[in-house]
Amino acid sequence: MGPLWFLFVSFLFVAAASGAAVLALWLISSERAKSPSKTASAIALGISSAWAFCATGFGYLSIPAQLLLSASYLAWLWLLYRLFGDDDRDKKLAPIRPVVASLALVELLHLATLLTLFNHLGNSAQAQVIGHFVVIFRLLFCVGALVLVHNLYAGAEQQARQSLRWPAAAMGAMWLYDLNFYTIAYLLNQPPELLAQLRAMALLAAVVLLAVGSLRNESELKFRPSRTFAFQSFSLLVIGTYLVVMVVVAQAISYAGNAYAPTMQAVFILAASVVALAVLPSPKLRRWLRVMVSKHLFQHRYDYRTEWLRFTDTIGRAGPQAPPLPQRIVQAVADVTDSPAGLLLTPLDEGGLALAARWQWSTIEVPGVAVCCESARFFEQSQFILDLDDLRAGREQDIPQGAYPDWLFEDERAWAVVPLVHYERLVGLVVLARPPLARQLDWEDFDLLRVVGRQLASYLAEHASQDALGEAQRFDEFNRRIAFVMHDIKNLASQLSLLARNAELHADKPEFRADMLLTLRNSTDKLQGLLARLGRYGAQSGAVREQIDLAALIRSVAGQYSARHEVIATKHPTCFIEANTEALEQALVHLVQNAIEASASNSPVTLDLRVEQGTAIIEVADNGVGMSPEFIRTHLFKPFHSSKPGGFGIGAFEAREMIRAMGGRLDVESREGQGTRFLLRLPTSTAAAAQSDINDVNAEVA
């Protein structure tokens, strides 16, 4: 036999092995498989595949190949019995079980005599006698198995035959081929070489027949494999091709016939094994295979059923170990494109977008206002999914520059921006990192990301609604607390009323006068404390305004803490604004107190004042523990979120509301472990007067 014949035989065995393995994997993984007893079919196909691979590598007459062939016989016999069971005839036909058990015993006897034959190959006379028994046992098995296959199909009802014909034909083809093979072997006293080399054709025919029966669906026959099955099949094809190439090259080296052929074969097999171990497990190779399979074998890139199941699993994850919803939102979008990391940007109260969550992306620097108001308006109106690689390559020209700020555009890892729109309102942006195998986004990516973005926007809006409802409930609880305070005031009033009535009767007694003075003093202190607390939550925070020297006010606030903590007020010329003195001082006290509590005892707090374009900016800075962007976004300015035991958690919220009531703004910049800066922005008296004049002119013109 020449090299071409050897290549043809090797191809038959590899094709049969690969086909059997692929069909076995599909029967196990696919829900569309129509094959009866598909688990038993998958087991039989898997063992037959192992036999074919072993026969390719070690030879079809080798000990491992013969052992696996016997195992495959037993597996196919088990499939035959399971087919009788699916037809409910194993209970009606009592002789079936004894026949199956007898055939299994015959195969075990064949295996025992085969092992005995391998132990007596040196004695030709004994080997010839044992070889006759080996062939006879296998002939008995093939005849009995073919009889059972005939009974399986002939005795089935007409309706059941539709599903039984294909597995019956598959097993009949294999055992009929083996019956001829062992008959000739018995007559010739040796295995027929040609039929042994073509044994893989019987297995290949069985695989084709079983595949047709598994994929057949009444009147139509369509091959619709799952993506997992296609990827596994493609991987098996790669492995099979690698195996064929390795065997062919090894045999070609042996045909060279020189003295170094065995050494060259060993070196080649070692090198090929090292290459396989280095390349085949590579995640990059698997991703490339997945992309190639999706691109060339399927009409659509995505398996939408799988994507939606993964999406719902990510979003619906609950429990103490589950990440917060904003992080799960980023992960849900990133999973679609295999992105390894991402960010979530959500709207600020003053406009623009800020960082709300990170997912596996701690290195990127995000400013306080990540995206400006104009950019947010662009994404809200257009719902455009931005591919940053298109911008960098100049393929996209019609995008306003504000839609991709410098911090995002200059980071090469940033890849795509997906808007989350709910009822035509932008509730967030997801920034995706570049996947390991980057590609240009197309219409299918845009459609799927847009649908996923709308769904996630509804989750995010619902989450915000729940937070607002919880906040309203906490305000209700706060109102109930105020009711208790009013009850205390009522009790104090009752005490004073009783004291006044008793004074008319006992005013002349020294003991009563002493007790009256003590009661009055205690009641007065309690009332003053209650009034001071209640006055902070009134509506007069920005009502009464006056000219305030900010430099003097900052020095005054810093002086209040001179005995407790070092508060440094930088020197600044006189700067006047129009505001409510008590409210502004109270807001500064809140922020300074928070900065002191976040700092070490020897770490000073700094109060700075500067003027920029008609706006006075007061900066309260510390070098304390700092805050994460997530805490700033979700807790800092939310009432009743306090990290201090017994605290109401309304200090920062109250300070921001008082600053807003005076026409100003309160911003915060913080990094964990590096400290925090609060920036109070208030219009100076000149700017406020100019704005007032403009308003008056506009009113006169109107």
Automatic annotation (TrEMBL):
Reaction equation(s) it catalyzes: ATP + protein L-histidine = ADP + protein N-phospho-L-histidine
Keywords from the UniProt entry: Kinase, Membrane, Phosphoprotein, Transferase, Transmembrane, Transmembrane helix
Segments passing through the bilayer: 6-28, 40-61, 67-84, 96-118, 130-154, 166-188, 194-213, 234-253, 259-280
MF (Gene Ontology): protein histidine kinase activity
E.C. no: 2.7.13.3
Domain Histidine kinase span(s) in chain numbering: 484-686
InterPro entries xrefs: GAF (IPR003018), GAF-like_dom_sf (IPR029016), HATPase_C_sf (IPR036890), HATPase_dom (IPR003594), His_kinase_dom (IPR005467), Sig_transdc_His_kin-like_C (IPR004358), XrtA/PrsK (IPR014265)
UniProt-listed Pfam families: GAF, HATPase_c
Enzyme class: transferase
Name the record gives this protein: histidine kinase
Protein species of origin: Aurantiacibacter flavus
